[in-house]
Design goal:
Elements (H helix, E strand, L loop, with lengths): L2 E5 L2 E4 L4 E8 L7 E7 L6 E6 L6 E3 L7 E6 L4 E6 L8 E8 L17 E2 L3 E6 L1
Parallel strand pairs: 2-11
Antiparallel strand pairs: 1-3, 3-8, 4-5, 4-9, 5-6, 7-8, 9-10, 9-11
């Protein structure tokens, strides 16, 4: 199992950009599908983006498509989420997720309690 640590959250104005990073420790990082989810108080954790093990294919929620970009570097055991054109509704705690047993396409429908690894989360606040 991998351990995940997110960084890069903060306060940004609407229309701005922010880059989140997730550092993974443990073995066989390249065998894990990686993704990002987000959660606001009182709501469920929602899928944001995922990337295949090799990094060649990505998936996004409709809410962030064309604004966010997920990528990974298997040599450095990292996954990033580049967020652009941020909106106040993007305000949330963002979580990095890893699962070796699901595809990137199916990560969006994987039950939250079945995800193999979660980071501790990083807060993103977008002011209007």
């Amino acid at each position: 199992q991998v351990q995940l640590v997110e960084s890069g959250g903060g306060l940004v104005q609407a229309g701005g950009s922010l880059r989140l990073s997730c550092a993974a420790s443990g073995q066989n990082f390249a065998s894990y599908t990686m993704g990002w989810f987000r959660q606001t108080p009182g709501k469920e954790r929602d899928f944001v983006a995922s990337v295949t093990r090799g990094g060649g294919v990505t998936y996004y929620s409709d809410a962030v498509k064309d604004r966010f970009t997920i990528s990974r570097d298997n040599a450095k055991n990292t996954v990033t989420l580049q967020m652009s054109s941020l909106r106040p509704e993007d305000t949330a705690v963002y979580y990095c997720a890893a699962h070796a047993g699901v595809s990137a396409q199916n990560m969006r429908t994987t039950p939250i309690n079945r995800m193999e690894s979660w980071g501790q989360g990083t807060r993103v606040t977008v002011s209007s």
